Amino acid sequence: MTIIGIAGGTGSGKTTVVRKIVEALPPHCVAVVPLDSYYNDTSDMTEEERRNINFDHPDAFDWKLLHKQISELRKGRAIEQPTYSYIESNRQKETVHVEPKPVIIIEGIMTLVDRRLRDMMDLKIFVDTDSDERLIRNILRDVKERGRTVDMVLNRYLDVLKPMHEQFIEPSKKYADIIIPQGGENKKGIAILCDYIHGIAK
Fold first, then answer.
1. How many CA atoms are closer than 13 Å to the CA of 167, on its beta-carbon side?
2. What is the DSSP letter of 122?
3. Taking Cα atoms as reference points, which of 126, 56, 45 lies closest to residue 88?
4. Nearest of 23, 25, 21, 3 to residue 111 by alpha carbon
5. Number of alpha helices (DSSP H) and beta strands (DSSP E) in the chain
């Protein structure tokens, strides 16, 4: 089994890179584990308290559960991956059944921040994209998919996303084995990466 970590700022193009890797490998060869699924369970909080959570801080994630489930996959055991709703800012009752596969991809903004998680990885990737481009993508995504206004997205970017990116995400780039500039637009870089993963995953 090959475990790959893919990190990068919000809106950097991580999802596009992951999709290209999945498409380049044999069918049913890859399982994707999104870090976003492992936000802490906030069922004991009020709705107002939930909406005040800093989702771009390491403390927002249930690292213990993620460590446990990645370890289970490495041992060849299936997991019940949690699901999370950005609209409700809470974990859902539904889970996703994930079978162990030859390639496991862990994808998310903080994927390279946690040392124990990094130690489980065979390959660490950082998707690096210009901050202006990431902001534009965040506005388009959050307005369309997460029920936020443009002003809400801009305020959150200045108050939370930008400082958290500079404090936690950008420094984690130093742990990457491979850096993909320009995110999903870097076709040559992604192609080289896919060829490399195809080789080590055999």
1. 9
2. S
3. 45
4. 3
5. 8, 7
The answer, yes or no, to whether residue 80 has pLDDT greater than 90, is yes
Lowest mean pLDDT among 20-24, 92-96, 130-134: 130-134
Instruction: Write the CA distances from 30 to 86, 90, 106, 119, integer angstroms.
Output: 25, 27, 11, 20
DSSP 8-state assignment for residue 176: -
Q: What is the pLDDT of residue 98?
A: 94
Q: Find out whether 31 and 103 touch, Cβ atoms under 8 Å.
A: yes
At 147 the pLDDT is 66
What is the crossing angle of helices 14-24 and 187-200, to 10°? 50
Count Cβ atoms within 10 A of the Cβ of residue 62 and give its class: 0-12 exposed, 13-18 middle, 19 or more buried: middle
